[in-house]
Amino acid sequence: MSKKMMTTGFALAGVLALAACSDAPAADDGDANAQEQSAEAGAESPEAGAEQPEMPEADTSDIPEVVAEVNGEELSGEDFTVLYESQFQQMAMQSQISGEEPDQDQLKEQTLESMIGNELLLQDAEDEGYEASSEEIEAIISDAAENVGMESSEEFIEAYEDQGMDEEQLRQDAESQVLINQVLDDLEVPEPSEDELRELYDEAVAAQEDAPSPEGAEGAEEAEMPSFEEARDDLETQATDEARNEAAVAHVDDLRSDAEVTTNL
Asked: What is the pTM of this model?
């Protein structure tokens, strides 16, 4: 099975979706109207017409053919570049708003660590004998299609291939993600305590109280904060997700402490 990983963090679907962004369905009339209204509002702004900063470009000139070796398994510079450019595209779009140039060295380090973590999880899955069913693989691709507003996996795969990529590789990457998900799903995650839920609730209440009122909303009635009991289910989900993320990071750290990892970046 191919070990080419195009994942970021532990979620394949988000990166796969980026491959089809340029082929995602066009905005409907409602979106077009919203954009037109936004443009009209912008024209009234004192900053309208101000020159926008240039979109920064990803620098991949120093990427070696092999960016790392994990227990003898090579992680290619080609795969790194695909993932890095996808991540950089998101940061560059944010920089248009913030005006702050992306830190490419830091992003490269994060991208490499993400690839290493995924490779360690995949190796762990194979060592433990996990298997991915065709239904699970299809579900990963279907989720990616849904994330970009496409109606079917077939439409997503077509868009993926239009980007010059291969369906077989897509399915192999999806299979790898299923295996990784199985490892993460089997990690022990404690149920959140009452104190943890109360703390999350108090933080949400404080955040709402500190949030500035929307412009032009003087006299408008603020949204009422649900009671603790009403918010309990959402609080439990949030706490469990946070605990699962912490467990995943800790598991990768444990795997890495016993692994032979060489980085070339």
From this structure: 0.72
